[in-house]
Amino acid sequence: MEKAAGSPSVGGSYPQKNAEILSSQYGINLFLAGLLLTFAWAVHAVGISKSHLLSYLITLMLIQLLWMLWYLCRSCTQRRLIRDKDTHAGARWLKCGITLFAVITLILDSFKIGYYIDFSNCLSPTEGIFPVTHAVHTILQVYFLWCHAKDIIQSFKTLERFGVIHSVFTNLLLWTNGVLTESKHQLNEHKERLITLGFGNITIVLDDHAPQCNCTTTTLCSIFSQGIYYLYPFNIEYHILASTMLYVLWKNIGRKVEHHQQHKTPFKFHGITIGMIFGLIVLTSTIAIVVVYLIQIGRSKIKSELALTMFYLHAIFVLALMCTAGIIALLIYRLEERSLDNSKNPARKLDAELLVGTAAGSWLLSWGSILAIICAQAHPKYTWYNLPYSVLVIIEKYIQNLFIIESIHREQEKVNDDIKTLRIVTISRGSTLSLTPSYKEIYNGRAARDSGEVPCLFKGSICGRENDGGGGAKEETSQENSSVMCSASDFSFYSRNSVTNNKRRILKNIAAFLFLCNLSLWIPPAFGCRPEYDNGLEEIVFGFEPWIIVVNLAMPFSIFYRMHSAASLFEVNCKT
Predict the structure, then answer these.
(1) Which DSSP symbol is given to 469?
(2) By the 8 A CB rule, do 417 and 263 touch?
(3) Considering the entire predicted model, what is its pTM?
(4) Are 52 and 127 in contact (CB under 8 A)?
(5) CA nearest neighbour of 52 among 31, 63, 67, 36
(6) Are 129 and 62 in contact (CB under 8 A)?
(7) Contact yes or no for 69/202 (Cβ under 8 A)
(8) Are strands 431-435 and 424-428 parallel, antiparallel or unpaired?
(9) Helix axes 126-148, 92-118, angle to 10 degrees
(10) Which chain regions cross the lipid bilayer (predicted)?
């Protein structure tokens, strides 16, 4: 009888599970086809040109645009179809972040349009259609995510699964295309520096995809061609953020949610002054280091070695501070007794998986550097700084991942914000006595009323007035006893509250400091400061082409890790 009763629900879950499997397989094949096409263009495969790749991406974006328009129209005409919301998905700060990246992406698209106009005589029409389509796609997608990132879809579930997963892998392919284009540009710059420094033992062939015609306006062409590559890091972050938000939407399709009150956690600058000051110092110094590095690297051998030494020393200092801050935060967590929230939450689960998964990119590069230092026969002086740097990168990510994952899984502490200082006026023998009780006295008074007892605050005033006929001595004794009880209770409360508030303040400052440090460490690789290219030791040990392939595969994950960690730490700061 139990099986018969449970069979309808079990049987009803099979179509949805099959739809999830089918849609995921559709998305993976869509991505693999685009990935292979991207790789074929990158290696100059016969019969594959950039126009083929762009045509494929344009087609995918148009299909996603049609699906988003259909979804938006259906949501407007039938508002009651979607009732449930995932309160953890699509946080406001995340939407603001993706909007900022989208605005810069639109600037990038405008640069590409200008670049196409200047070289229109020898460029394929797809290179002009692509940025226009991408701009429309960006505007509509940001609007869609602002309005529907929290939706839990309960109707047309099979169709919606295919639409959402198509959007996820379309953004991943656009991210891949941006990463590859930016990596090829960085690699060409690196090869030019090697030529300047006179490396004759490495075969260097510039991978040039420049148009084979003259520009109509030389000045504008230079601005567009150079500006495009400075904007690519923001475009890359935009697409990876969009794909993660859409993935959470896909996981939420058909999900049953428990309705409970969600506490709003706004960001406040109050109480994090120390963390912000130290973080801003790190951010400012990092920007200065990156500027000097980009100016000095490749000018001469001595200047390049000085630039690398400067970078490693600064990074070692910052990473050591981050490790220390993370250890202090974990020790504070060990001293606290707070339960973890183990409820089902796709957004939180994805955050944890992305932290560990993308950290593997940095770990791969760090272990490669450590192995190169051990195996190399000759060690220039600056390469020894690479050893502590690589070790600290591994340790810092271990500690930071532990801190973030535990922070986002800890249950939020409930605080009675509505408890305020009251002014109690009692009348005793015709005179007005003004008492301003402490926070704890009111708190104890409220708890005592709930248990049926009279709070100590009132025992010495109001209750004493009611028993006035019993004599003044009895009233004075009652007031003295109650005051002693209140003093002991207040002392215990204030000591506990002081310790709790201090711990929270320290954790908030640590989260703010790590947030700014991760933004600081995102800047160097995102804007071309990559010692993994310029160190030279790894290229000698592993070979030029193999090491460059490893760097190009791992670097995008390393860059994304820093931005994702910064976003997670922002959430931790709001939650603490």
Answers:
(1) G
(2) no
(3) 0.72
(4) no
(5) 36
(6) no
(7) no
(8) antiparallel
(9) 170
(10) 26-47, 53-72, 93-117, 129-146, 229-250, 271-295, 311-333, 354-379, 506-528, 540-561
Q: Are 34 and 179 in contact (CB under 8 A)?
A: no
CA distance 483 to 42: 81
What count of other Cβ atoms lies within 10 Å of the Cβ of residue 520? 26
Q: Is 536 left (phi over 0), alpha (psi -120 to 50) or beta?
A: left
**Long-range contacts of residues 198-201, Cβ cutoff 8 Å, at least 24 apart:** 199/536
> Cα dist. 350→22, 146, 397, 457 in Å?
21, 19, 17, 50
CB of 151 closer than 8 Å to CB of 85: yes
Q: Find out whether 184 and 207 touch, Cβ atoms under 8 Å.
A: yes
List the structure tokens of 350.
Answer: 């994805």
Could you tell me how many residues make up the chain? 576
pLDDT tens-digit profile, the chain (576 residues) = 434 444 444 445 556 677 778 888 999 999 999 999 988 888 778 888 889 999 999 999 999 999 999 988 888 877 665 567 766 676 777 888 899 999 999 999 999 998 888 777 778 899 899 999 999 999 999 999 988 888 877 777 778 889 999 999 999 999 999 888 887 777 777 776 766 655 555 555 555 556 667 776 667 777 787 788 788 888 988 998 899 889 888 888 877 766 544 455 555 556 678 889 999 999 999 999 999 998 888 777 788 889 889 999 999 999 999 999 999 999 988 887 666 666 667 777 888 888 888 898 899 999 999 998 888 887 778 888 999 999 999 999 999 999 998 888 776 655 444 434 433 343 344 444 444 444 444 444 444 444 444 444 444 444 444 444 444 554 455 555 554 455 555 555 455 566 667 778 888 899 999 999 999 999 998 887 888 877 878 888 888 778 877 888 888 888 889 988 888 888 888 776
Structure token pair of residue 468:
């006035």
- Dihedral of CA 73/77/78/84: which sign? positive
Q: How far apart are CA 329 and CA 324, in angstroms?
A: 9
> Cα torsion at 107, 112, 117, 121 (round to 10°)?
180
**86, 257 in Cβ contact below 8 A?**
yes
Q: How many CB atoms lie within 10 A of CB 288?
A: 12
Q: Measure the CA–CA gap between 366 and 264, rounded to whole angstroms.
A: 39
Strand boundaries in 424-538, DSSP class E: 424-428, 431-435
Task: Return d(Cα 387, Cα 375) in angstroms, integer.
Answer: 12
Q: Are 518 and 562 in contact (CB under 8 A)?
A: yes
Q: Which of 476, 477, 478, 494 has its CA nearest to residue 438?
A: 494
Q: Which helix (H) or strand (E) holds 118?
A: helix 92-118
The whole-angstrom separation of Cα 348 and Cα 341 is: 10
